[in-house]
């Protein structure tokens, strides 16, 4: 793709200092996907690019091809802020949330593979999170992002029926529950969904694909599955009204982290460590 004279809306994912006055940035652009960029002079006090290249900012950037490089590096020549999202940098928990969203998006996507829906998902999540006053709402937005991200990448978990025997979740009889009636289903990332208790025993849990949380089975109740369906299918104005107890939140956390770890590996775990460090109150 020729980016010598391109302007695009971009979300700033991360950056690091380069030379005395420059910064290397990774951005996710609406039409170009993830890009590596160089912002020259941005560290100078009077730089016009500084506000448009801050972490978590959504900006309209103009690119040209950087001379003398063979690694796809783009030179940012101009920039204007579309959404500053300053609220995300003023609260420690929201810093953790925004960092997690951008880190997951970064590790989940290759360079220069356009996927506009991912841009819209990330920006929508951050805009709503910036305005969300309650940890309860921030939690729901995080889970919304994780589930929709899996869907956009082709890994949407099947939550309507057991992935092995095909029995509908709402009609699975008691004999197909596990020993724990409270959590009768289990996350099965390798099968792309969930399994009932009987299928879980038949499959055997010696298989590494199913052990995503330090050797513990990831149990799911019907309530947890229902909430995850809502996050997948409802609009934010509807699901932000949901109220979850601590047990449901932890259950959904473990299940979604199992799916993300299975598909994204170490990048998912590293992003989660930072989230737990700064945004732990959102998850509890």
Describe the structure.
The protein is an alpha+beta fold. 39% of the residues lie in helices and 21% in strands. It has a five-stranded mixed β-barrel with strand order 1-2-3-5-4.
Q: Work out the helicity level.
A: 25-40%
For the record, give the distance between the C-alpha atoms at the N and C termini, rounded to a whole number: 44 Å
Overall geometry comes to elongated
> Order of strands side by side in the largest beta sheet?
1-2-3-5-4
Structural Rg: 21 Å
Overall pLDDT score? 88
Low-confidence stretches: 210-215
Series of H and E elements: EEEEEHHHEEEHEHHHH
Q: Biggest sheet, open or closed, and with what strands and sense?
A: 5 strands, mixed, barrel
Number-wise, the strands total 9
Query: Roughly what fraction of the amino acids lie in strands?
Result: 15-25%
Task: Provide the structure class.
Answer: alpha+beta
Helical stretch tally:
8
Features:
alpha+beta; elongated; 8 helices; five-stranded mixed beta barrel; single chain; 284 residues
Please sum up the structure shown.
The chain is α+β, with helices and mostly antiparallel strands and 284 residues long. The protein has helices at residues 92-108, 116-131, 135-152, 197-203, 222-233, 236-239, 246-264, 266-283, and strands at 6-18, 22-29, 33-39, 58-65, 74-83, 158-162, 185-188, 193-196, 219-220.
């Amino acid at each position: 793709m020729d980016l010598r004279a391109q302007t695009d809306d971009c979300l700033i994912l991360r950056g690091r200092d380069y030379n005395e006055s420059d910064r290397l940035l990774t951005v996710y652009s609406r039409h170009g996907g993830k890009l590596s960029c160089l912002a020259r002079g941005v560290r100078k006090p009077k730089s016009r690019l500084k506000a448009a290249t801050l972490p978590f900012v959504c900006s309209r950037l103009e690119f040209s091809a950087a001379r003398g490089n063979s690694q796809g590096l783009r030179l940012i020549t101009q920039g204007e802020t579309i959404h500053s999202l300053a609220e995300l940098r003023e609260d420690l928990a929201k810093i953790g949330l925004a960092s997690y969203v951008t880190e997951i998006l970064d590790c989940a996507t290759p360079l220069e593979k356009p996927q506009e829906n991912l841009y819209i998902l990330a920006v929508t999540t951050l805009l709503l999170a910036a305005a969300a006053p309650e940890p309860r709402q921030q939690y729901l937005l995080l889970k919304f992002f994780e589930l929709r991200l899996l869907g956009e990448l082709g890994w949407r978990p099947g939550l309507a029926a057991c992935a092995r025997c095909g029995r509908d979740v709402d009609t699975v009889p008691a004999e197909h529950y596990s020993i724990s009636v409270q959590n009768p289903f289990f996350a099965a990332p390798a099968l792309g969904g969930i399994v009932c208790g009987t299928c879980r025993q038949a499959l055997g849990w010696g298989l590494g694909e199913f052990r995503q949380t330090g050797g513990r089975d990831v149990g799911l109740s019907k309530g947890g599955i229902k909430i995850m369906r809502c996050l997948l299918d409802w609009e934010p104005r509807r699901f932000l009204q949901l109220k979850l107890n601590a047990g449901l939140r932890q259950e959904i956390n473990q299940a979604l982290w199992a799916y993300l770890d299975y598909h994204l590996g170490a990048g998912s775990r590293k992003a989660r460590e930072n989230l737990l460090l700064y945004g732990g109150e959102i998850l509890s």
